[in-house]
Each structure stands twice: as structure tokens, then as C-alpha cells.
Amino acid sequence: DGHSHLSAYERKRLKNITENAKFFAALKLHEVSARLNQLTTKRQSHITKRAKPKKVEEESAPRRSMRLLRVEPLDIPLLETLARPAAEEYPQVPAGPLPMVPEDQPENSKWTEALLSTWMRISEVNTDHADQGTPDIKRYQESLSSMVLSEENVRKVVKARVCSMAIHPSQSTILVAAGDKLGHVGLWNVSCGAEEGAHTFIPHSFQVSCMHFSPCNPAHLLSLSSDTLRCADVTRAVFDEICRSEEDFSCFDFLEENACSAIVSCWDGAVAVVDTRTPGASSELSADIGFGRTRTVHVHPVNKHYFLAAGLVDVCVFDVRYLKAKGNKPLSSLPGHTKSVASAYFSPVTGSRVVTVCADDKLRIFNSKNTQVLLIFKKQSSKIKANKNSQPKPAWAIWDPKQEHCFLVGSMAQPRQIQVFQDTGTLLHSFHSGDFLTSVCSINVVHPRLNILVGGNSSGRLHVF
């Protein structure tokens, strides 16, 4: 049609213009206009118009803006014309499966192949081990004190603020994944120690708010953004799409050890049940749990049918077996929160404790069996009043998977640090490094077997202790 160089939208626009022109031509409006003009002229021909008096002086020409005329003013150089805004820097990611190709890198890059082959190799190793038991507090403190941060273990992995992280369970190689607010997913092979060890992918169009390596197949990395849940399958080098919705996802957790189903929370307060085995990209069930907003969901480590949901001021336990579209009632509620709750998680081994982080700067420890408040204490924070536009994302308190009674949380105290607390409120250890940790790490992740801690900050930088 002579317009093959145009986009589909521009070709559609030209087609609409052509069809509109033909329609108005068929109406012959120009003929009607000429006839009306003729009739009007005949009616007014007998009217004698009064001649306008001639102006004595010609009016001066109207003043025009020199800026609009692009004329350089006298004695003032004209600033360079601003460049025309370029096309959208981060276009929308299409639906469906996507190839696992890093940003700004060719598909057959040797560095990319090395990273993906490493991920595949360490995922083939059996990561299931017998329970090592929870170490006593003294030995645990000694292991924390032995962890340090060095310059080579600090790397900018994603472009924007880190919103989620996951660490591969391998005990031979440290592989960390991070998701940022632009929809990027970064993979960093910390063990290789080379500049080429980190690569960035773009599987999402929006913020990556949650991500987990599959507990039964660590060759799969599941990541959640506001519109889609994807699974990065390194064996096929593809980002599969598991679920797509317009309900604005916020968090997810696996309902089974085989990772075949998951509970997904939505910002509007509802939760959805997703089965990865069913075809299509829709959820199995969408349930209204009565929340105004749901930020996080977490499944009980022993009784997988129980899950914990945290919202505005609501923290409740539900049974997934009895979920329905409307009229869901919680099994129990964890009261006392007066402001927005950032996160709520069961303790990792027995699930007998729940730690919550609230916008009132308080950490709360609950007994999950009878929902009794065991402890409330203030987060240690900086006394310097921060600008509201520079406030970091609310820090999440996460349990150390190796220790049933201890959890970690980022702190705004100076020097910047990540603090480890016992469920009695005792501060056991503070991770800090004046030279290499100078920002707040609001998102943290701990290795399930090794003494490895990773903290992410608002500039996309990861710190590995």
C-alpha cells in the first residue's frame, strides 16, 4: 500500500483519515455551503452598508513573542533547542514466553552462556539435605561475626531500586537474583569474581515485587510484577508466563513443596490461587479476603494450607482450602497495628512465631498459635529527619532460614547496617562496613544453608556478606 515503512498504528490512522474524507465527500457539503452562501447574498443585496471611516494612522503591527518566533534576542545567546523526546525508553514487554537474552547483549554472548550454564549445572546438584538443626545462640553469633563485606562483593546488578531478591540454594556457587522497580531481573554469579558475572534481563514491564527459586527445581526462578507471574526456565532459556491479570499483583508464595501451586496477593486486597500445571494464563480462584490492600502473603512452613496475609492494618491467617470468591473469614487475626504493615512472616522451621514490620516503626513478635503478642519493640533508626521524597522502601523483617528464633531487618541507623534480632528482642549482631555499605538495605535475603547474607539498596546495588 506504499506505507510499509510505517507502524501498524500509523497505517491504521491513515486508513481512518481516508475513510473519513470519502464519507464527507459523499455528503457533498461543499455544494450545500455554496447554495446557502448564494441565498444569503441575495437576501442581503438590498441592504446598504455604511462605509467604514478610514483610519487616520495605520496601527502598528501586533507584538510577537521572539521566543515563539525562534529569534535570537539582542546580546543574549539563544539556548540550544531541547532535543525531541525519544521513543519510550522501556517499551512494554509482550505477553507470552520470552527468550532469556540479556539487555544490550547478543543472544550468543559467551558471558551469557557461561552464566546460564553455571545456573544449570548447580541446579542439577541435589540440594536436599538432612536437617542440620538450629544452632545454639552462641554458635550462631560466632558465625554472624565471621561474615564480612569486601569490595569485590558489592556490585550494581539492576538499574533501579531493588524491590525483591532470591538466592540459589547451591552450596558450591553463590548465585543471586534481584528484581527492580523497572521490571528488570539481574543475575549475579558472585563466586566467579569477574566483571562479566552479572547480567540484566527484562521479563517484566513493571516493578518486580517478589521472586523465589523453586524449592523443588532451582533451575526455575519465579518472578512477580504487578501484571504477570513468570518462570525463568534455564534449561530452555525462556521466561514462561504462568499467570497474567489486571488485578495488580503484590506478592506470592508456594502452597506446596513441589511448587505446582501458589498463593498470590493483589494490591486491591484480594488473593488468587495459581496452578502452574494448568494451561492458560489465568488464576484458578480469585478470593476477596476483606482487606483494603494486601502487601505480602506467606505460607506456613509445616501446614501448607495456612497462609498469612498482611495489609493496611490487617494481619490475618487464612485456610486456602476454604477460600471462596466472597465472604471469607480469617482463622485468626494478629491485632495491634495502627498503621500500614509492610510485611508479616512465619518463623522458618515450626511457624510458631510471626514477625511484622509496621509503619509506626515497631517490630512485633506474635505467637502464631494463639495470636498473643509476645513482644513489641522500636526499630533502631536514625534521628535525622529524612525528606519524604528520599525515604527508602519500608524494610522487611525476614527470618534466617537456619535459625528458628532470629530475624534480620535493615536499619537507617548510622553507620548503615543490617541488624539481627532474637525473638526476645535482643540485638545479636549488626552487619556494617563503613567503606562499602553506605546506604539503607531495605531488602535482604539469607542463604538457606551457608553463612551468606545479601542486602539490596535503592540504587540497584547488592552487598554480599
TrEMBL record:
Q: Which residues cross the membrane?
A: none
Task: State where composition is biased (Basic residues).
Answer: 43-53
What role does it play?
A: Specifically binds 5-hydroxymethylcytosine (5hmC), suggesting that it acts as a specific reader of 5hmC.
Q: Name one GO cellular component term.
A: nucleus
Q: What is the lineage of its organism?
A: Eukaryota, Metazoa, Chordata, Craniata, Vertebrata
Q: Which SMART domains match?
A: WD40
Q: Name one GO biological process term.
A: regulation of DNA damage checkpoint
What keywords tag this UniProt record? Repeat, WD repeat
What is this protein's record name?
WD repeat-containing protein 76
- Which family is annotated? Belongs to the WD repeat DDB2/WDR76 family.
Q: Which GO terms describe its molecular function?
A: DNA binding
Subunit structure comment from the entry: Interacts with CUL4A and/or CUL4B.
Tell me the organism. Toxostoma redivivum
Would I find ATP-binding among this entry's keywords?
no
